[in-house]
Amino acid sequence: MVIKKAGDIKSSEITDRKTYLNRRQFMRGATLAGSVVATGFLYRQLLAPEPVLPTPTGKVAPDAQAAPKQWGLPGEEATPYQDITHYNNFYEFATDKYSVARTSQSLVTRPWTVSVEGLVNNPKVYDLDELLKLAPQEDRIYRHRCVEGWSMVIPWLGFSLSEVLKRAEPQGNARFVAFETVNDKKRNIPLTDALDWPYVEGLRLDEAMHPLATLASGIYGEALLPQNGAPIRLVLPWKYGYKSIKSVVRIKLVERMPPMTWNLAEPTLYGFYSNVNPKFAHRLRDQTAERRIGEYGKRETQMFNGYGDEVAQLYAGMDLNYYF
Amino acid sequence: MKEIKFYKVAIFINALVPLALVGWDWLHGRLGADPLNFVTRTTGTLTLVFLMLTLAVTPARKITGVQWLIRFRRMLGLYAFFYGFLHFTAYVWFDKFFNLRAAAEDVWRRPFIIVGLTSFFLMVPLAITSTNGMIKRLGGKRWQRLHKLVYLTAIGGVLHFYLLVKSDTRRPVIFGAILAVLLGYRLYVAYSSKLKAKPLSLTQTAPPR
Ligand code: HEM
Q: Is the ipTM of this complex over 0.85?
């Protein structure tokens, strides 16, 4: 019987085992690293918010960057321009708020006309430039409350919608105003199938004539970007955001209450008036509090979004839980 | 077997990758305008993803015949619970700031919250009884029957998602379709094994010509 001494073991055998182990370690390391990268990639593609784009003009509103406080309301800073332009609900382009900035970039906003028509003595199709010169553009800093439970403070640039309506001279039987958003695919609007297009909205004539009802064409002194409703949109600070219709092409005075897109989609959730109302028991989202974008805590939502002194008399005697 | 141990480690680490990236993005201010809402929603989606992965183990094992896949199921299930717990915590903390009255009112008023809560609480006994000791104490049969609750959790999770979206139902519908396949496979297996059992008993009772 031959007993091998330690020295008899071939050195190559030892190396072999080492290489084998090394190879296995290497394969494990590669599997681990590869799978982690793949999982990270999947997360980035499917769940992470889109990276923020530089604004197309190349400049991020200098004033907005310099002094957001200067633009705010007493005790409430204005929301940063980047958040206003990268957290948008504009369902024609996309249904998640992060990707509207990207998917709306190629919206064609020139030439642009707005038709004022219906029960008026002076119907007129305005060219945009003409419309913007109807009245002096003012900085108007308003709270903006989304029904989803978040809010912003936005320094709009615009003037009252009443300037346009007055010139049109509504006839005696005109009681409502109907609005319509552009839905022309040739202007590079993907028109998702989330809702029926065109997006339509409406107001009672006295609401539309209220000085707070604003026709806005800018934010922080800059022209509106597509994601914010370029080139011209409505701003109704005492109502939920979806009432403030974007990229308007038609304003029509009518006798009967006009349809509104979200009401057609979910009549029990979105009423014609849609005034901000913390007492309304909304089935989808809590209306008693809101997150101000840029803040961590929550603020209590105010009746009429804090504009009760100005607008409450429009609804005197109405049960706002019934006319929600 | 050494290799299974390694795969377990790999899955354990991979399952933490989304959480790590959420944390990383948060530190770098890349979670968008409303980071807290983003965390709430993303942990919810991850809960649903891990529920689907957990439910995919058995069909994958039966179809491929790779029996040891079953060894990963407990970890995947516990990750579903882990992300569910984070999701629930994000809601109570970031959405309600531990204001229990406001939370109670929310539960009462909003069906999607009730459904989410039910789905989450159904996972609690499953997580508690996930240890080997508990399986022994309950006995395999009873343990298995109890853990069928995960089907309800998954159905409830998809329903919760469907109820909370505003009008674009694509994502909850996709999850619903995946779940339908995973549960449908189980029904198919149960049904077809019954069918197979019949001809077998026929040949046994039939007299040889
Ligand atoms: C098995 C349990 C659960 C699953 C699978 C689940 C899943 C989800 C999913 C997929 C979303 C949507 C993510 C998105 O929009 O991208 C979500 C959102 C949400 N879930 Fe859950 N969830 C569960 C339990 C809960 C519980 C227990 C609560 C609270 C008590 C809850 C409250 C919420 C809230 C508040 C939202 C976000 C709504 C918003 O965007 O404002 N969920 N969940």
A: yes
Domain membership flag for residue A244: yes
Task: Please report, to the nearest 10 degrees, the dihedral formed by the alpha carbons of residues A216, A217, A219, A222 taken in order.
Answer: -160
Domain extent for A286: 2-6+22-315
- Say what the pTM is: 0.89
- Position B201 scores a pLDDT of 47
Count of residues in chain B: 209
Pocket of ligand 1 (CB under 6 A): B 37, 40-41, 44-45, 47-48, 84, 87-88, 91, 95, 113, 116-117, 119-120, 153, 157, 160-161, 164
Provide the percentage of residues in chain A whose pLDDT is more than 90.
Answer: 70
| Domain-embedded: residue B195 | no
Q: Which residues of chain A form beta strands (DSSP E)? A: 113-118, 124-127, 138-145, 150-160, 176-181, 200-204, 214-219, 222-223, 233-235, 248-254, 289-292, 299-300
Residue bearing the CA closest to ligand 1, atom 35: B91
Within-domain flag for B139? yes
A102-155 pLDDT tens trace: 999 999 999 999 999 999 999 999 999 999 999 999 999 999 999 999 999 999
- Pocket-testing residue among A285, A291, A293, ligand 1, by greatest number of atoms within 8 A of Cβ: A285
Count how many domains chain A has.
Answer: 1
CB nearest to A291's CB, from B14, B30, B36:
B36
Q: Are A272 and A260 in contact (CB under 8 A)?
A: yes
Pairing of strands A113-118, A248-254: parallel
| DSSP SS3 for A11 | helix
Mutate to test the interface with B, among A95, A98, A262 (most CBs of B within 10 A): A95
Helix segments in chain A, DSSP class H:
11-46, 62-66, 68-71, 81-84, 100-103, 128-132, 162-168, 205-209, 261-265, 308-311
- What tens digit of pLDDT does each residue of A24-46 get? 888 899 999 999 999 999 999 99
B53, B72 in Cβ contact below 8 A?
A: no
Task: Please give the number of the atom of ligand 1 that sits closest to the Cα of B95.
Answer: 35
- Whether B16 shows a pLDDT value over 70: the answer reads yes
Q: Is A225 within a domain?
A: yes
Nearest-CB residue to A43 (from B17, B34, B37): B17
Structural domain contains residue A15: no
The residues facing A124 across adjacent strands are A116
How many independent structural domains does chain B possess? 1
| CATH number of the CATH domain containing A274 | 3.90.420.10
* B48, part of any domain: yes
8 Å CB contact of B166 and A40: no
Per CB-CB distance under 8 Å, the chain B contacts of A294 are 33
3-class SS at B133?
A: helix
Instruction: Kindly identify which residue of chain B lies nearest to residue A152, measuring between CA atoms.
Output: B33
User: What spacing in Å lies between the alpha carbon of A239 and ligand 1's midpoint?
Assistant: 27
Residue ranges making up the domain that contains B114: 2-186
